[in-house]
Amino acid sequence: MLKKTPIAAGIAALATIFIAGGCAVADADKSNAVDYTAMTPEELAEHLIFEANGFVLDQEVQEGGTTRQRMVQDDLHKACSVIGGGDPDQETLEAVRAAAAESIVYPEGGIELGDWERGRELAWSGFGYRVGHKTDDHSARDVGGNCYNCHQLATDRTGGNLGPSLTGYGKTRGTSEAMLKYAYDMIYNPHVYFPCTNMPRFGHSGFLDEQAIADIMAYMFDPESPVNE
Amino acid sequence: MFKKALLALPVALALGATAHAEKPPEEVLQDLIDSVDSAYLTQSEQNLLMMADNPAMWTGMDGEDLFHTPRGPNNVSMEACDFGKGPGVLEGAYVELPRYFEDTDRVMDLENRIVHCMTEVQGFAADDPAVARRHGSGSDHMKIQTYIAMQSNGMEWNNPLDHPLEIAMRDAGEVMFYRRSGIADFNCNTCHGESGKRIRASVLPSKDVPQEWTKAMSWPAFRVGHDNVRSSQHRIRGCYWQMRMPRINPDGDASIALMSYWTDASRGQPAILPDMKR
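^ Those are the sequences you sent over. The predicted structure of the assembly is below.
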């Protein structure tokens, strides 16, 4: 059982790492290098994610750059990550709301509705920006909006309920300029109305481009769209 | 009912039915269903009916052979390995993982402990398929994991939080669960923070409803949609993928921290092993 002594195990693990070109098995004890118990839970989580080979951080991502940036928190992520769930304090929520308001960029020619038929497919599709063991190839397909994951829209397909039902949205809400702006804002950066909401910032993050947003909005508002049947 | 019993019996016998096998996984699940109103637990009647003939049972039986057969360059069986309760002791071992192991000075989950056993005790090279292939019913890992996990069916999750590293890992896992990042701004709580929520038609388990969460994290489970037995590490990989986050490293402490936390969230609830999922 010589094998089990920490030193032997360490050497074995090192050897493995050389052989496997760095990508593996750390049965290794890096334990002596850093003391997990001396860190706060937040520090340890950061350490495990960024320093301790917790994730594959050097894969290229669709938007340019590497997977590392998908783990780095921006101000909103930090403000809205509350242990145990729920919302941060009112002041923080106000700051999130204000930053969201600053972030919204409108199309040059104003908000217009696009092609609802394309919007229907985009609202359904969950394709796009996935990385790792299966990486979405954006040259092969359009990036979808995942709207049905969380919302019911037209009732010919089953939508989720993380968000409210949007069935009949255009028919019940109308298509006034204010209404279109509200919907655009919600898609672009919903934190302007619901700070720390679970809904992604589809415009701000670049997840959906201007055309995709226009087409999905057409699906929500066009009187011909099955959403408004 | 009679038919179910007949089909289930040979498997139970073959596995050397011990005390915990008295209540098969489908009855453990049924008791949970009876104890709480949960759309998640009841979403697949089909799976409930099929559970007595869960293909994962056969995966576990293959694992029994592998476990007890001398293997690897050192020609020893896994009976020489300690899964937390002493060499070769499997009953109730899995519900007490992840835990701290002195020989590695590390908190380890089942998968990492099996890797350790294969490489350090049996002498397999890290790139041997026995060690390196982690997924699929045909992999040694899934067979052995399923066999070991089945020896904890019906027992209460109870990962120890005695050693300072066990506490540190559990607490870091909690931070990870609530940590938002990435292009879609998700954290685990986005989808697992409330009972009765659905992604499209799939009912999601809530981390805060222990009767739901015990089923959620009862892996290995036969995933009907994948036609394969899947592990905890496979599920974690899948959820990070949906979140548009990078691939998690199954050998890294990040995944083990997350499991320390999710097991703590099910503490006291009975494990359903093996389970069957969508």
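Confidence is low (pLDDT under 50) at residues 1-10, 16-20 of chain B. Residues 2-277 of chain B form a domain with the Cytochrome Bc1 Complex; Chain D, domain 2 fold (CATH 1.10.760.10).

Shout if you want it in another format.
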